[in-house]
Amino acid sequence: MAWFSPIGKRNPAVLRRAAGGLFVAAAIVFASLSGFLRTVDDRLAELRFQTQSIAPTGDVVLVDIDARSLAKIGVWPWPRRLHGDLLRAAERAGAARVAFDIDFSTVSTPEQDRAFAAALAETRIETFLASFVQADTVAGRTVRASFPIELLLQNSWPAGVNVPVDGDGQVRRFPFAIDANGETLTSMPSLLADREAGPGLLGIDYAIAAERLPRVSYVDLLRDRVAPESLAGKTLIVGASAIELRDLFDVPVSGIVSGSTVIALATESLLQERALTFLATPWFVLAGMAFIVFACAVRLSSRYAIAALVGLAVTAEMLALYLQNGHAIVLETAAIHVLLAACSIWVLFREFGLRRVRLWIARTQAANSQSVLERVLDDGFHGVAILNERLQVTRINREALDLLGLESANRLDELPAQIGQHVADIVAAFERGEGAGKPAVHVLHFATGAERVVEYSIVPFWLSGFADRPGETSGDIVYATLTLRDITERQKAHDHIRFMALHDSLTGLGNRRALEQALENILSGPTPDGGVALVSFDLDRFKAVNDALGHAIGDEVLKETARRAQETLVAALLIARTGGDEFTAVVPAASLQTARFLAASLVEAICEPFFLSGHRIGVGTSVGISWWDGQAATVTSLMRHADVALYRAKQSITEQVVAFEPFMDGDRLERLKLEEDLTQAFENNEFRVVYQPQFCLSSGKIVGAEALVRWQHPERGFVSPVDFIPVAEEMGLIHRLGGWVLDTACREAKGWPLPIKIAVNVSAIQFETGDLVAAVRQALDLSGLPPERLELEITESAFVEESDGLKAIFDELLAIGVSLALDDFGTGYSSLGYLHRFPISKIKIDRSFVMDILTSNRAIAVVHSIMALADGLGIPTIAEGIETPEQAAMLRLSGCDDGQGYLFARPIEGQAVVEMMAGPSLAAPTMLAAAG
């Protein structure tokens, strides 16, 4: 140090220059060791690629295993015979070569491998199969070559497909050849471009437009959907492009591409003589350049030195662009740019000095921060105003002025009164050490009548003050920021959402949630005079109207019902739609009798005909009332009582309005117990099937039997089907019960000595919502019963939902071979249309007509009409409920074919049916006696 100090003291410029040289050298070394130079060189090369777009030769065509091909073929890995079929399709199209970027290193199935090998041998296309080198141990210290199986290599060439990946994860080079266990394996691009294998890597020119490479889908080529002229004489590369197959690589310019695309671009680079050569700047050249640049920078002024350095950088980059685009040479210029940048920094330090540079940087940062804040303030989505310690508006942006409807604002009192007072209160509280307030909402009313909802927040903060006038002292001062935003639309949306949450979208009435809230408010408030009636009502026959005339008309009926309810129940606190056609009103009334009167008025209003879209529609209603007079009650109990009363009203024949009474809860509980017992009946095997024989009224011979379900409960005893079948239908158990009856009846009938028909009743609900066809097929398959012996008895209610779906079910049943009987004919929705549109094979006369046939002329007329209709259509008839010989004789004389009833036999067990068949006819003597 002794020899250096005198020089430094005599000539400080020498020290500055030496320090500058060391700084430049250190910058280059650091940039190199940190990988910065490599990153910059790669980025610059990519930018140069983007300055031109080179068209592919068109000699290389990609055959993509894409998502569409995967979807069409359906499995993966594909059977190897498909690749053989692809080779044959390529040969038919005239392709010259086919390269498969697919792993064939393991054996598939013998027949699949032989099929692919046969195609390789039979086609005259030069074929290349992918080979690669991979780690052979977990540690990866040894490698092994993976070649296609020997059977496939007999008529194909192995081609290397290994690619090196750079440190940033991108692929920029492709080997000419790879070392495969001591042997040289030529890479696929080298083979496809007819280049000799050699050491080293070829640089891929990504100026060649990857998106312009010719492509066809694998499945299109496989099925000959590609024009032959587009493939004639071409090289095909078959590879995976579907994302799910994960054969993807990151490359410059194009981003993520398939492995086959990388191979195609490398091949194109060789075919177009565009294989890139990477030329790094030698260190001695860089050192010499650094010396010259540094020497010139020392002798030139800072302005000219900076200009010269920038000019050198531009010149170097233009030279690199020329070499890369014109001669496929990638000149690595990052070191040159780092050198020039370091020299520029040294020149600036020399010009300004360290302190001045720091001051300049600080001022620049402050100015930039101020500019950013001003820009944020002026261009922000929110309105902002800043107030000083005197509550004067020092800054307010245009958004705030527009929100408040002002042209300008300099004082607090120019702001809306509520907001201004709120600002003053918050600032005063802040000065006292209290916390800041929460955001508030203010509704602005303008002279035009418009309204705007503004949400605003006030945030006070301390600033360090200073004395800027004589007599003033410095100290902390309070500023405040007022932030405003327009939430008018949000408030409208919130109000709309709240409305939708509490209202029915179709009728505009309240919904169940609104009803519950209203009842909660009533129960928690003062007891009203008299009381409150919860009036629940629904529409009768609405489903039939909805299905017959369509949902649009059904919606109009609901809206008109809501309107009539509002007009009738004017005093209602709330009317809500609680279900499809169910409504509930909360009505204050002086007494329960008054509530009954209002409910009766409602029934009268709704029962008036509806005239909608040219239709005259009649619907009825049933009403249930739950009365509350201030006694202890809950929302749940009131609503439940109204539902129970409504259920009673719907079940009643005479009463359309029913008020809840305590004993009804017992009926409700009994119904729930019946539902529970019905569910358990399946588990406890409490159901059984009995049969009522059917006889020919002329010969007295047994011709069939009707299967009837019976329920023997351990505590209830015998439960009538009239009681439990409707419950099973409502619970959805009818499908399970009906299927069980079908299975049992078919199984037992299969063992009977005579091949008579077995009739099984089918609920209309089984047609509407169940899979009746599947249940019938199952019963026939399990039992082995011939389909022609099974007869399904259906009631006319099944035809209310007449539709294409219903006809399709009938067609399927008819195709199976079963027959269909129309049960209880004449008691339901009778229509001659059903008889000729649907394949009815038998008409069953209801017992109500049989019972009165000896005493009622009307019953006789109905029976004669049915007989005439059946005779005209060629449909047999059967009468049920025959109890006397005289009834049987009258029916036989009227033309009825068959009959059943207590006259012949009560419902009996299956074994009894077998015994009856084995004995003499029981009906013939009775019938003959009656006839005599």
TrEMBL record:
Keyword Transmembrane helix attributed: yes
Domain EAL: 671-921
TM segment ranges: 20-40, 278-297, 304-323, 329-349
Coiled-coil ranges per UniProt: none
SMART domains in the cross-refs: CHASE2, EAL, GGDEF
Keywords attached to this entry: Membrane, Transmembrane, Transmembrane helix
CDD domains in alphabetical order: EAL, GGDEF
Domain GGDEF: 530-662
Membrane recorded as keyword: yes
Pfam assignment, any one: CHASE2
SUPFAM superfamilies, sorted: EAL domain-like (SSF141868), Nucleotide cyclase (SSF55073)
Listed NCBIfam families: GGDEF
Protein name in UniProt: EAL domain-containing protein
Organism in which the protein naturally occurs: marine sediment metagenome
